[in-house]
């Protein structure tokens, strides 16, 4: 049932007609006609062509493909190698990664990333923004993922952020490595202001990041204030630079967990420039909850940024997984359900409408962050990329952990799943 070849007026066409699709929770079921890899028509009723087989979804949920807006593919699938992070802290994570980094080769990175993007694809992910550690004089991981980006583009779009894990100014030749990574083909420039040695370095590193992004025409995605320190205020500089340079929504602030600890009076002032700057936000609910609050006794902070308030203020917020089975997160399968589930619980976003719409954190909103443009989404004329879930709406999908039954990219089936059958014998 992969693709349908159909003879239309003597011409062979790739045609697939779907009926009874619940598109993005819409209770009025629709028919979808796909021709030559595009959404040709989306209507209440569609007449199939003569002798054409039609796929009846019987009211199942159809969503745009999932978008992973923040992950570190270069570290994935390394948990426990050679030692597990026993304390669960970010800093022990860095120590464990240092040990693992000794064995890093291009093949090792390619093997692991190949595996993990297939795990992601099986859950309906078709776009991934990965941060790649470029604080490495050999740029081994970057080289591997640049090569892989080409190899896998038929089923996965990979966007690469040149990520200076230890800083731009607090690591030898940090600035040069960042510039080289952008020249080699990274899509976005990164920075890590809260990890730089001083506040002065922090501000200066952001200026460098913006200058280089503008010089090479790249996007920006910053690991910003990923710390429970209420004095960590890289975000105000990021937003101001985004506003003043006009880069605005080409800029993303990832994590911003210090915002969880800001006082409300400061937040009111900050919110003004956040809205003016139009920057995107990415929260990573699972990893932020796991690594956050570690210096606290009780009460322990959750460490999640203010997702609800930012969303209500009209800012674009998406969710990422950050780490998949690595020194910072011993769990993860690449399923975007996990950050949504954790995010709406910890973010107090469990109103019925909020639950129904929470898929947007890992679809539409994330697509905006990645600048995927108007060709993303279920609309006539767009590439026919979408997923079918084994549920009647996203509330049910989330609650019952419904699998992605099929994932289509440009009209081509790239992943499918046969759900498990459970039997109760009483
Ligand atoms: Fe991250």
At a glance:
Helix content is about 30%, strand content about 25%. It has helices spanning about 90-100, 105-120, 140-150, 175-185, 200-215, 235-245, 265-275, 285-290, 305-310, 335-345, 350-355, 365-370, 395-400; strands at about 5-10, 10-25, 30-35, 40-45, 55-65, 65-70, 125-135, 155-165, 190, 220-225, 250-255, 280-285, 315-320, 385-390, 405-410, 410-415. The strands form two sheets. Strands 1, 2, 3, 4, 5, 14, 15 and 16 form an eight-stranded mixed β-sheet that branches. An eight-stranded parallel β-sheet has the order 6-7-8-9-10-11-12-13.
Kindly state the percentage of residues in helix: 25-40%
Distance between the termini: 36 Å
Q: Helix segment count?
A: 13
Helix-and-strand structural type: alpha/beta
> Low-confidence parts, pLDDT < 50 over ≥5 residues?
none
Radius of gyration of CA atoms, rounded to a whole number: 22 Å
Strand percentage, roughly?
A: 15-25%
Largest sheet, strands/sense/barrel: 8 strands, mixed
Q: What is the number of strand segments?
A: 16
Attached small molecules: fe (ii) ion
- Overall 3D shape: globular
Mean pLDDT: 95
Order of helices and strands: EEEEEEHHEHEHEHEHEHEHHEHHHEHEE
């Amino acid at each position: 049932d992969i693709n349908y070849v159909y003879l239309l007026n003597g011409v062979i066409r790739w045609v697939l007609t779907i009926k009874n699709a619940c598109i993005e929770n819409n209770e009025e079921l629709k028919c979808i006609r796909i021709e030559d890899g595009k959404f040709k028509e989306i209507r209440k009723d569609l007449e199939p062509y003569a002798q054409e087989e039609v796929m009846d979804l019987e009211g199942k949920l159809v969503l745009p493909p999932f978008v992973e807006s923040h992950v570190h593919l270069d570290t994935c699938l390394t948990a426990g190698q050679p030692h597990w992070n026993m304390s669960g802290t970010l800093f022990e994570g860095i120590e464990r990664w240092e040990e693992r980094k000794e064995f890093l080769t291009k093949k090792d990175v390619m093997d692991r990333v190949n595996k993990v993007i297939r795990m992601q694809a099986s859950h309906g992910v078709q776009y991934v923004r990965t941060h790649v550690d470029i604080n490495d004089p050999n740029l081994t991981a970057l080289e591997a993922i640049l090569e892989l980006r080409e190899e896998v583009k038929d089923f996965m779009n990979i966007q690469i952020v040149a990520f200076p894990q230890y800083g731009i100014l607090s690591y030898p030749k940090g600035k040069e490595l960042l510039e080289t990574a952008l020249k080699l083909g990274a899509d976005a420039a990164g920075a890590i202001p809260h990890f730089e040695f001083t506040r002065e370095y922090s501000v200066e590193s952001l200026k460098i990041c913006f200058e280089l992004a503008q010089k090479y025409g790249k996007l920006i995605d910053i690991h910003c204030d990923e710390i429970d320190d209420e004095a960590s205020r890289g975000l105000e500089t990021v937003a101001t630079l985004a506003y003043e340079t006009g880069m605005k929504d080409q800029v993303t602030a990832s994590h911003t967990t210090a915002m969880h600890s800001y006082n409300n009076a400061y937040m009111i002032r900050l919110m003004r420039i956040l809205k003016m700057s139009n920057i995107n936000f990415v929260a990573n609910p699972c990893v932020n909850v796991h690594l956050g609050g570690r210096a606290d006794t009780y009460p322990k902070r959750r460490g999640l940024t203010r997702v609800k308030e930012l969303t209500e203020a009209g800012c674009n917020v998406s969710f990422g997984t950050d780490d998949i089975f690595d020194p910072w997160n011993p769990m993860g399968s690449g399923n975007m359900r996990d950050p949504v589930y954790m995010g709406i619980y910890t973010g107090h976003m469990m109103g019925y409408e909020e639950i129904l719409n929470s898929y947007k954190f890992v679809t539409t909103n994330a697509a905006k962050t990645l600048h995927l443009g108007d060709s993303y989404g279920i609309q006539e004329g767009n590439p026919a990329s979408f997923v079918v879930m084994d549920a009647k709406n996203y509330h049910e999908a989330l609650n019952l952990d419904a699998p992605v039954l099929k994932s289509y990219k440009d009209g081509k089936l790239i992943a499918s799943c046969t759900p498990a059958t459970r039997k109760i014998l009483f």
